[in-house]
User: Fold this.
Amino acid sequence: MSRILLVEDDREIISSLSEFLNHEGFDVKNAKGQASALQLIHENSFDLVLLDIQLADGNGFTTCSAIKSEYDIPVIFLTASGDEYSTVTGFDLGADDYIAKPFRPRELVSRIKNILRLTGNTGGITQIGDVSVDTVRGTASRNGKDLYLSALEYRLLLVFINNKNAVLSRTRLLESIWDIAGEFVNDNTLTVYIKRLREKIEKDPQNPEIIKTVRGIGYRLDL
Assistant:
């Protein structure tokens, strides 16, 4: 799973973008300014940095320069400053891509995956028993054989992976898969997709060992 550091001082953007990227299979941490961003990079291993220009302290340009001087981490500028000077300055400082706000979330994910492929920082494969989930290619397999998950089944599995060992209510799961379905997903539909997902990833779907039912509350993925 690729680890992303989001350096942004807007709380609303931090919340919405982090949630979206987590649902897409990325492990996201955030920092509001240059000092906290550099501290996190020093203490953790990241595959990519999403960086705004306007920060709580410092600015995106100096932060990018500091990152590139010490670490081999790709940086994507994510900012409302889309003028030519800002774009050129960002690339001159070593930025790997530059995306102006407002942006389409799906396009952002595509650009992130492209940079990760080009730099070789594609993250690890999440292993759940004998099931392997490749979050960069968007595939899941068991013992080398593709499980051919549907978009909703895959999204549902990612939600569980990103909340491993935590109990997720049915309401939380419904909210997480609603937008990708393009229409309202009701409680009965969720039951059907849980059943289908178990049939593909569990050795014995009738006695699941991966996605377990927590009676009266919801479900939990044991990883």
The mean pLDDT is 85. The first helix runs from residue 11 to 23. The helical segments are 11-23, 34-43, 60-70, 84-92, 105-119, 151-162, 170-181, 187-201.
